Amino acid sequence: MDLRRSWRDWLEDAGLAAVAALLGLLLLQATIEDTVPDQEIPVRFELGAGAVSLVVLLLFRRRHPVAVAVTLIFLQWAATTMFGAGAIAMYSLAMLRPWRTALPIATANLALIIAVFWLVSPASDFLEGAVVFTLLHATLVTTGMLVRSRRMLIESLKERARAAETEQRLRVEEGRLLERERIAREMHDVLAHRISLLAVHAGALEFRPDAPADQREAAGVIRQSAFEAMEDLREVIGVLRAAPPGTDPERPQPTLADVSALVRESRRAGGDISLDEHVPDPSRVPSRVGRHAYRIVQEGLTNARKHAPGAGVRVRLDAGTDLEIEIVNAVPPGPPTLAIPGSGAGLVGLAERVALLGGTLEHGRTGDGRFRLHARLPL
Prior knowledge:
The protein is 65% helix and 10% strand.
């Protein structure tokens, strides 16, 4: 017995039970009208037996159609009202099981009915009853088989649609993977070559004995930055190529504690940067928030280096209920002498980072001729 059905299934089962009840009542009425004067029909027993057969049909026809049909084949001779349930059981059997199962059972039931009619009915009524029940069984079995075929066709079409959708999704994913691999190859062929050349020339200048000390120090910063850029590029290319996990260990991600090292690195490159840090307990700052905070400071220093080279930069970190990050630098009166090309998407990327954490980002010029970048990240 399966009571977990959809409302459509329950509505279908109730409709079939109603048809079975109507057919059983019609047969009972015909039996009463054809009864000889001395014969008495137990109407209450007939109605009770018909009700029991309807309950069996309603609860078990979907889960056990063969058992229900075989049971009603034998029980329908106990009461006329059960013939309606037996007819619907034949229909359900043809609808829910293959024809190899439905046809033999339906044929055996029809043969049994015709045999009983031949034994108990007059010759004039035998032919009429045999024709009626033969047509009834043929209609029920044929209709059930047609419904089954239609449902199988619809299910096969749905399966084909799901397969086509899955194939289309796989094609889209394959196209994305090929495009990412193409981008990775372009990045490797172009950027890796130029950055490696930069590192080689910077290394040659750093270890040149006749070069001034400040130039060798600056060359060392350039060489180290180029090396780190190559490491970042390798990681990005690995992500683009969607390398399986475990092939290469990922580089450690920066945290809030690495901001001071980032500031020192920028100072070594000649930047005038001050760090005002008010973070009593850096360990209470989640690593995810600290990583985004590091990237915000990194992007702020990069923008200051691009658009205001040589200007003083003040970085402030304040951890209270939220983590506040403020980067302020002076804005030069004219365009920078050495313009560094950029993609123009740095602040857009920062806004996306902050939005992922549910924070806020503000940036723009202030009234005193400075540029201010302020981010608030919830802890």
